[in-house]
Specification:
The protein has helices at residues 2-17, 44-53, 95-103, and strands at 35-39, 58-64, 67-75, 85-86, 109-111, 119-127. The chain is an alpha/beta fold. It has one domain (2-127). A 6-stranded mixed β-sheet has the order 1-2-3-6-5-4, sandwiched between helices. A hairpin with a 2-residue loop joins strand 2 (58-64) and strand 3 (67-75). It is globular, with a radius of gyration of 14 Å. It starts with a helix and ends in a 5-residue tail after the last strand.
């Protein structure tokens, strides 16, 4: 938990003062921009639970051994392009594996059963956090 809290502080500082302040964050129906932090090693189900807790849409930053990556979670109905694939997350999947999978699908990955409404993960990419 300490590692996740430290990473959360790093992401918040970078969103406020760093180069990622220029990143366009996912905006939900209420006009909010939820930011979720995760570790690549966490179970996918735990991270999807955090996304569900903020309404099923948001920008996720994840820290792994190779650096920091982000992925956007949006409602499928908000998407202009149909997702390239559908995913039924397995219980043993970790979040890093999920981001690897999303990176392989430029049109995104639908996650039909994860939230109240169909969701889509897209725009997975590496980001450079500089403010610590």
């Amino acid at each position: 938990m300490e590692k996740l809290d430290s990473f959360r502080r790093e992401v918040n500082l970078n969103l406020a003062f760093g180069p990622v302040s220029e990143i366009e964050l996912v905006t939900n129906e209420a006009g909010e921009c939820p930011v979720i932090v995760a570790l690549d090693s966490e179970p996918l189900s735990a991270v999807l639970g955090r996304v569900r807790a903020v309404g099923g849409a948001g920008t996720i930053f994840s820290q792994g051994t190779d650096g920091v990556r982000m992925v956007s979670m949006i409602e499928s109905g908000c998407s202009l392009v149909e997702p390239g694939d559908q995913l039924a997350p397995g219980g043993e999947s970790n979040f890093g594996m999920f981001i690897d999978y999303v990176e392989l699908h430029p049109d995104g990955v639908a996650i039909p059963a994860a939230f109240d409404r169909p969701a889509k993960a897209r725009d997975a990419r590496a980001v450079d956090l500089q403010v610590a």
